[in-house]
Amino acid sequence: MYEKNQSVVSEFVLWGLSHSQSTQLLLFIMFLMLYVLIVSGNILVIVLITVDSHLHSPMYFLLANLSFVDMWLSTVTTPKMITDFLRENKTISFSGCMSQIFFTHCIAAGETVLLVVIAYDRYVAICKPLHYFTIMNRKRCTGLVLTSWTIGSCHALSHLVVIVQLPFCGPKEIDSFFCDTPRIIKLACVDSHDLDIFTNVGCGFVGIPSFILLFVSYTNILRTIKQSSKAGASKALSRCTAHITVVMIFFVPCTFIYVWPLNITLLDKIFAVFYSVFTPLLNPAIYTLRNKEVKNAMKRCVGLFLG
């Protein structure tokens, strides 16, 4: 797009979530606690699923991968945000900014695809139970997880290749707590209209098909549940409701930031906090830790540790 990178900006300034010193101290304590819960909760899920043979099923294999993705989705931005609450100069280097953009888009797009894979797994389990282990074998599950990472990496590279070539020659203040494509584009010394469209279309290529596939999967699942026995339907409906809740918490903020932006700074910050902090925090609780099988696995692990 450009002959060379004309950037003379070596770092960017992040405005963060608040300018009040007392508020920043409160936010530091709150987000530090949330981040510790995110990391410990997701590591607990991964360890339980790895060490307990009762959880060696396709569903839990995918949920362990979701916990791994969630942990890194939060880690890309949250530690930097937490340390910046205690710093007067909230700066980030140009390379650090580009790294945040790449990994945020890579992991977020990968999680989007992984949520579709989990919905497909539930569709097969509920709508085609007799063929479940044949369809969702380990080779296919591994291939689907690798596909999610491949799509995420390609999506992130498509953004990074364009952004690193932009000429940054003046403004360097970002009204957010991390570097993200829409904010960075506005700082470039070029007309950002076409670049905004590129970002929206690029994110739409991942988000819209994923949302359609999720909608189709859960529609078929709910249709099958309606025809099932009352006992089986209740359990399946409970799980699907939890899955749909997580999907909405993740998809709605991402949609209004990248696919259909509202361009309201306060809302953008709230949405960014939701998908980078609250989604990784809620996923282990909603998807995994409240399951009876996982609770039993925790009891077995505690028993072995104490024994």
Please give a structural write-up:
The chain is mostly helical. It has one domain (11-306): Rhodopsin 7-helix transmembrane proteins (Rhopdopsin 7-helix transmembrane proteins), CATH 1.20.1070. Helices cover 75% and strands 3% of the residues. It is built from 11 helices and 3 strands. It has helices spanning 21-51, 58-75, 78-84, 94-127, 132-135, 138-163, 181-187, 193-226, 230-259, 265-289, 292-306, and strands spanning 11-14, 91-93, 173-174. It has a 3-stranded mixed sheet. It is globular and about 65 Å long. The relative contact order is 0.15.
Q: Topology, please?
A:
Elements: E1 11-14, H1 21-51, H2 58-75, H3 78-84, E2 91-93, H4 94-127, H5 132-135, H6 138-163, E3 173-174, H7 181-187, H8 193-226, H9 230-259, H10 265-289, H11 292-306
Parallel strand pairs: 1-3
Antiparallel strand pairs: 1-2
Please provide a brief summary of the model.
The protein is mostly helical and about 300 residues long.
Radius of gyration: 21 Å
Into which percentage range does the β-strand content fall? Answer: under 5%
**Largest sheet report:** 3 strands, mixed
Structural class: mainly alpha
Helix/strand order: EHHHEHHHEHHHHH
The average pLDDT score comes to 85
